[in-house]
Amino acid sequence: MISFSSFYKQIADSQLQHWLETLPSILGQWQREHKHGNLPKWEKVLNKLNYPEPDRLELKNSVTIGSGEQLTSGQTEKLENLLQLFHPWRKGPYHVHGIHIDTEWRSDWKWERVKDHISPLKNRTVLDVGCGSGYHMWRMLGEDARHVVGIDPSPLFLCQFEAIKRIAGQNQPIHMLPLGIQELPPLDAFDTVFSMGVLYHRRSPIDHLLQLRDQLRTGGELVLETLIVDGDENTVLMPKDRYGKMNNVWFLPSVDALKLWLEKCDFIDVRCVDVDVTSLAEQRSTSWMRNESLVEYLDPNDVSLTVEGYPAPKRATFIATKNEPNLDLK
């Protein structure tokens, strides 16, 4: 069974220690409710990932674990087969003992677009909301963050994260919890909070912004990336049914509309630092993600449109600072 005891120990003497009042019971309930389904199978795979401490751990410019020279060819083949059991791998890429986990998303491209605009992460406590398999968390650790916490309710993403961590070494100050942000109390503790690729999945985007704000200390920094559409501060697209074949897309605001939302939620110094159209090279099917991907979500006759006729995915990244508490927003 996946254990969270090391996380409890690491936060016991930190600014997150008050989280221990509620977190163990919440995660205990999660463990009881996920005894069935695929989790037991995935946990058996995790128990087979017993490898020596890697001779290389590169997190600054990539996520590379091991030089590729520690394992025999047979061990490498076995490891690759075990990691393939966690298909589909969506966020990456990872390089593990010479194995290239070529994920659906080139998440390293997104990180390159973001990293030079954020406050330095050195010695900061960081929360990554909707972290997926944790790729960006490792890059945050590579920027010398003191402690990185990721949350995502997907058991598969948790197991993918645990697989990478077990191979990288368990003593890293990086942890993932199988929770949604609605399950977090207002912690008011993180120096930086990331929400990348989450907002458009929320039925109430304003509530999501307030939940993000409640995790930050005063003066802390929000890094928000989401789908947007062109328009003025009153422009918001709400798909009638699906968007890019996704049935859980609710609101796509314009850059100006989202800036207004953030300011309405009492963030200050709000700025859009990047706008980028998602390319077919950034999101695609691979041998590690063999399902449909972006090319199937777009109009085959006009890739500037989704198959439903909406504008093709365009993403914007915002940076904002948590202002002094405004009790009217509680």
From TrEMBL:
Carboxy-S-adenosyl-L-methionine binds at residues 91, 105, 110, 130, 152-154, 196, 200, 315. The keyword Transferase applies. Pfam families: Methyltransf_9. GO terms for molecular function: methyltransferase activity; transferase activity, transferring alkyl or aryl (other than methyl) groups. SUPFAM superfamilies: S-adenosyl-L-methionine-dependent methyltransferases. Its EC number is 2.5.1.-. InterPro entries: CmoB (IPR010017), Mo5U34_MeTrfas-like (IPR027555), SAM-dependent_MTases_sf (IPR029063). Keywords: Transferase, tRNA processing. PANTHER family: METHYLTRANSFERASE, TRNA U34 CARBOXYMETHYLTRANSFERASE. Belongs to the class I-like SAM-binding methyltransferase superfamily. CmoB family. Catalyzes carboxymethyl transfer from carboxy-S-adenosyl-L-methionine (Cx-SAM) to 5-hydroxyuridine (ho5U) to form 5-carboxymethoxyuridine (cmo5U) at position 34 in tRNAs. Homotetramer. This is tRNA U34 carboxymethyltransferase.
